[in-house]
Each structure stands twice: as structure tokens, then as C-alpha cells.
Specification:
Bound molecules: magnesium ion
Distance between the termini: 29 Å
Number of helices: 4
Order of helices and strands: HHEEEEHHEEEEEEEEEE
CATH superfamily: Creatinase/methionine aminopeptidase superfamily
Strand content: 15-25%
Number of strands: 14
Radius of gyration: 17 Å
Length: 256
Amino acid sequence: MNWSRQIHIKSPAELQIMREAGRINATVLATTKELLKPGVSTADLNAAAEEVLRKHGCVSPFKGYGHPPYPASITVSINRELVHGIPSRNRKLKAGDIVSIDCGTVLDGWVADSAFTGGVGQISPEAQALLDVTLGALHAGIEKMCVGNRTGDVSAAIQNYVESRGFQVTREYTGHGVGRQMHEGPQVPNYGKPGTGLPLKAGMTIALEPMVLVGTEETRVLPDQWTVVSADGSLTAHFEHSVAVTEGKPLILTVP
Ligand code: MG
Ligand code: MG
């Protein structure tokens, strides 16, 4: 991923718009979560997401992003697929699948970026543990997003939370600043050392996104040039929130 490393501090008024974008993004994700049922296609999930975005006069920054241009408004990544799965009419959900859905929302030129992983019907205890650890790691990272800390404190919190529970974090895909662009500085990896990296300042907005694997941390990209899978075929999960650093507690932008 090659994106601008520029860091932009947001004003309170700008944060308010990003918070509104985040609220809409949360509605999109909640709508897709309701649809996680056997037989639903991943294209159905994308269509439902686009309908919510349209209703709010918003678009997803994913559509047309990158090379080759990403063709949909959300990514849907099932089981061994870690991130960037392309929705398809032929891809139907099955009971026991775990499904990661990532969506962005652009409102008045400001971006919110968030993801969750959910189960289809009954899922295995291992899959449930993976989901719990990935969500827990996201919140362990968010807790460290305070003035006085550095990006390495956030990264280390995520890595320690995951690895101390016997799971792996990806080295290849990272959290990132978010704002006018979907990807700004700073880059926030899911691994790192406390006390290193950039100091966090009030008004920074960062999309934190632990991507967690049951087996090897190694991944590869499928021939569609987007879908990232675990190299060993093991289960993976992904949770993400866009979060603002404030003078007080971190402000999660992508909640209802
Ligand atoms: Mg995302
Ligand atoms: Mg992101």
C-alpha cells in the first residue's frame, strides 16, 4: 500500500462531520450484519450497503480505489480471507462461516472507515475465540490512543493482546490516518514497541484495524489482485474503527 504519509489534525467542526460519517457507516455495517444468513450472496451484502449509503447521499471510497480499480462499495472476506474480498453473486454464505465486512463512507468529503467480523449461524469455538480476540485487540489499541502516548504504544497493545492469547497479527496490512483521504498518515501497524513511533496529538484521526490469524501470520493475494488470504488457509478476522485522539478519552467515530 502506497499512500500519503501526511498527517492532518482535524478541527472540532471537522471531527463532527467525521462523526456523522461514522454514524452512517455504522448503519451500513449493522444492515449487512442482519443479512449474515446461509444462502445470502456477498453481492447481496454489497447491494444492501449501497442502498443505505445512497439513502444518506453518501458513497463508499472503496469503489474505484487502487489498481485494478476495486469494483464494489464494501469488502467481504470469508474464513481464510483476511481482507479485500470482492463481492460476487456466486459467493453464498454458509452456516459456520465467519464473514469480515469492511466499509467506508464519504460524507461532505470526509471519510469514515470501519469493519467487523460476524458469524453465519452456529460457528466453531475456535472461530468465536478468534472474533473475541480480534475485537478485544481493537479496544486494547483504542484505549492507548491518548495524548502523551505514541503510535508504538497502540501497536504494541494490539500485538500483545493477540499474541498473548495464541493468535497472530499480520505484518503486511496496517491501520492508518483517515480524514479527507481514506489513507493518510500516520501508519499504525498491528505490531510494535511501546514508546516508539509518532506522538499522538489531539485532532488526529486513525483507523485502527487489527487483522488476526489463527495460524501463520503470512498472507498471499489471490489472482483477482485484491483478496488477501492466510497462506496456510487458517481462519482470519478483522475489526476496525475510525477513532479521534482528543484531550480526553479517545472518541470512536464509527459507532451509532
Ligand atoms: Mg476499512
Ligand atoms: Mg482501514
